Amino acid sequence: MTLERRWKIEQHLEHETAQLQQALKIHPLLCGILVNRSIRSYDSAKKFFRPEINELHDPFLMKDMRKAVAKIISCIENKERILIYGDYDVDGTTSVAIVYDFLCNIYSKEYLDYYIPNRYKEGYGLSQSGIEYAVEHKFTLLIALDCGIKSVELIAAAKEKGIATIVCDHHLPGSILPPALAILNAKQPDCPYPYKDLCACGVGFKLIHALAISLSIDDDQYLPYLELVATAIAADIVPITGENRLMAYFGIKQANENPSIGIKALIELSKVQQALTVSSLAFMIGPRINAAGRMDDAKKAVSLFIEKDPEKANALALLLQNDNTNRREADASITIEAIAQLEADLTLASKKAIVVFDSNWHKGVIGIVASRLIERYYKPTIVLTQSGSLIAGSARSIPGFNIHDGLEHCSDLLFGFGGHYFAAGMTLLPENLDAFKQRFEAIAAVSLSDEQMIPELEIHAELELEDLTPGFYKILEQMEPFGPENPKPVFCIRQVNNIGCRIVKEEHVRFEVEKNGLKITGIGFGMAEKFNLLEENGQLDIVFHLEENNFRDVKTLQMKVVDFDIAGKK
């Protein structure tokens, strides 16, 4: 099922583009794209294209960093026990791994431990069970990673028991901050740290960076952890700008040139053939890490990242692989069942939101299923399942509808909820299910226009076939790593002649187009449904990413097609 999409071509700022083109001497279309990404001078372009590791910000610019470092050093000197606590997703487990492993290099493991909460028994963030574990095992310092900024009561309870807390978080603080010894979070209003969009693993990295400076530890003892930071940046979908882009750049370089034992084991199991990118980290490596917490115990992921024995690492990676296989099977079967429910609903076409429920669906994958349903139907979607005496759900949304605000309007029908614009979770009593479904669908109906129900395809530049040269592609490559706020450029080419097409493996289309004597091949994955447009052998308008195809050591440029239509229709 291929959704129709509105094409929107990004407008370039002519004056600024011309100035940048004069400074860089590269294709003006690329300059226009750079200007729209706030790269408007030679110096900013140099930092973008030629990042240097010494451009990492001073970690002591972060509020409370000196307090945090002083406390950790004091614990080491006085042989006090330190517990590293983190969330069960990629960002949380990588955060725990880098802080725990770094401390193991400078402090005896006898005084260190880590704790990952059980997704289903304890839920997200700091838990009562986690605090009890710290008390029982006589820890005097708890370092909370990827959580804690809103755990006011639990951190107060820990403090009463003689446990100090260092919060390393990146979520927005509430109006009341927890009584922690130190809070490392650049989103605090009074934090002077110059980059605000770090993931939690990035905050954890700044902590070990500060410790390395304070203890005169060589760079090569902490910089290799950027590999895990890059993995978290990719999986947590934070902006690939500023310091995040810098850390992702060097972290991916590390993973490609000299991967750690754990990442190497995951690469081999994932069968990643080409060099790692943000995309392959997010869609190949990340799901295998996340699967541990979704299907079983996320501590396995931390164990993998701190393991020094290749054979043991391979065994742990295989456990994650098995969890991911189980996750994929559950995800696929639930998606099929959810689609069957929806296709049986004769009113589906008129609805602007989707709510589906089955008491037997696996709670660990319903968020993934909600995302798959959005890909198919492009409507705000909530997938619900039974969880003990309550119904639990995951919600995903589309531009134009704030899912958190939508749930806020249903709060009297909910047991609890939380989240942000595009994703949220909730629980409710079974007797409120029908009323909640009707209310939520009604809210979406009045909030979303018909135009907003058609997905928008953002195109960064319109060009001609003669623009697609090896030199053009070489500059394009240097714009990596791609991700949020630095997406892989999407191009549009119009009125090209279709001179040959075929279906590949029943699902994909391959075709060749020509204009003014120049030719290029395009591959459209999952686009066999649109093959009838190609059979007309007329002129096409095509939206695509530019890629390099290496076949038998012969490199040629090709289009990875995003969308296409009969020329002039869009």
Explain how this protein is built:
By secondary structure, the chain is α/β, with parallel strands linked by helices. The protein folds into 3 domains: 56-321, inorganic pyrophosphatase (n-terminal core) (Alpha-Beta Complex); 345-453, Diaminopimelate Epimerase, Chain A, domain 1, CATH 3.10.310; 457-566, OB fold (Dihydrolipoamide Acetyltransferase, E2P) (Beta Barrel), CATH 2.40.50. 41% of the residues lie in helices and 20% in strands. The protein has 19 helices and 18 strands. A 5-stranded parallel sheet has the order 3-2-4-5-6, with helices on both faces. It has a 5-stranded mixed sheet with strand order 7-8-9-11-10, sandwiched between helices. The chain has a 5-stranded mixed β-barrel with strand order 14-15-16-18-17. A hairpin with a 3-residue loop joins β14 and β15 (508-515). α1 (14-24) crosses α2 and α14 (310-343) crosses α15 (366-377). The longest helix has 34 residues, at 310-343. The mean pLDDT is 93.
In terms of topology, how is this protein built?
Layout: E1 6-9, H1 14-24, H2 28-35, H3 42-49, H4 65-77, E2 82-86, H5 90-106, E3 112-115, H6 128-136, E4 141-145, H7 152-160, E5 164-168, E6 182-184, H8 200-214, H9 226-235, H10 242-257, H11 261-270, H12 278-295, H13 299-306, H14 310-343, E7 354-357, H15 366-377, E8 381-387, E9 390-396, H16 403-408, E10 416-419, E11 423-428, H17 433-447, E12 456-459, E13 461-463, H18 470-477, E14 491-504, E15 508-515, E16 518-524, H19 531-535, E17 539-551, E18 554-566
Parallel strand pairs: 1-12, 2-3, 2-4, 4-5, 5-6, 7-8, 13-14, 16-18
Antiparallel strand pairs: 8-9, 9-11, 10-11, 14-15, 14-17, 15-16, 17-18
